[in-house]
Write a structure and sequence with these properties.
The protein is of the alpha/beta class and about 270 residues long. It has helices at about 10-15, 50-60, 80-90, 95-100, 135-150, 165-195, 255-260, and strands spanning about 45, 65-70, 100-105, 115-120, 130-135, 155-165, 235-240, 245-250.
Length: about 270
């Protein structure tokens, strides 16, 4: 661990670790000097499983690439070290979004065990505290319309309240169909009004009663109805579950100019 870790307890004592503990750790007291092992420099100390999880989250929040934790009492087992790794990596907002890999080395001892975690981080992951905060799926769609208009490659946002992932998926796919079919309508209208240079004016119709024609139905047959291709956007949730906390949408499609130039009305 680098020397900057020594100043960390004081910083956390001043601001608390509420931003760090997003999931079910609101009752944990602020990080204090007791989390540092007096017998080893730059080494954290854990006496319970919750201490171990919190210490690991602290390392992730600081973007540390490696961190050593001495585990005593309840935390002193390979099983606990493995459980903490799985929980931070898969079930916490911070770990699931920032980490691309999390491994550890375990060294058993008589009074305590030493666990050294190695962290690798996702390329392009943003600061969690700097993400746009939104309240529901409709707010996400407003941002997504703007991202499409400005031709962004990715949109990342954080929900202030638990939002069902099924609702988010359905809303995003509905927006894709709206934009997709709307673009076809725009192209059809433009083609209909376009004047072809050099085209001769239609000949005058002969005098007399008009010929009878069959009425044209305004409803298109299934073969003639516009077809919208499947949504090409990739939607990711962190952590992956029934409710969304952080959503990341990768926009793989380069939209035609007619769609990107179309005026968008955002309702905030």
């Amino acid at each position: 661990m680098k020397k900057w870790m020594l100043a960390l307890p004081l910083c956390l004592a001043l601001c608390g670790c509420g931003a760090l503990l997003d999931r079910s750790y609101s009752s944990v007291e602020p990080y204090a000097n007791r989390y540092w092992d007096s017998g080893a420099e730059d080494t954290l100390r854990s006496e319970s499983y919750q201490d171990l999880v919190n210490s690991l989250l602290l390392l992730v929040e600081e973007r540390a690439e490696e961190g050593t934790i001495r585990c005593y009492e309840e935390a002193n087992s390979y099983t606990q070290a493995q459980r903490a790794r799985a929980e931070v990596r898969r079930e916490t907002t911070l770990g699931s979004y920032l980490l691309s890999g999390l491994t550890f080395e375990y060294d058993a001892g008589t009074a305590y065990s030493t666990v050294t975690y190695q962290m690798t981080y996702r390329e392009g992951a943003e600061d969690v505290e700097g993400l746009m905060s939104i309240s529901d799926s409709q707010s996400l769609l407003d941002l997504l319309r703007l991202a499409v208009r400005e031709e962004h490659e990715k949109l990342t946002a954080r929900f202030s309240y638990d939002t069902p992932t099924a609702d988010v998926n359905a809303a995003v796919k509905a927006l894709w169909q709206e934009l997709c079919l709307g673009e076809e309508a725009v192209q059809t209208g433009a083609d209909a009004e376009e004047e072809i240079p050099g085209e001769e004016a239609p000949a005058e119709l002969p005098e007399g009663p008009p010929e009878e024609t069959e009425p044209v139905s305004g409803n298109l047959s299934p073969e003639e109805a516009p077809v919208c291709p499947p949504c090409p956007w990739t939607i990711r949730f962190y952590p992956s579950g029934d409710t969304a906390e952080i959503v990341e949408i990768l926009l793989h499609s380069q939209w035609p100019k007619a769609v990107s130039d179309r005026p968008q009305i955002l309702e905030w």
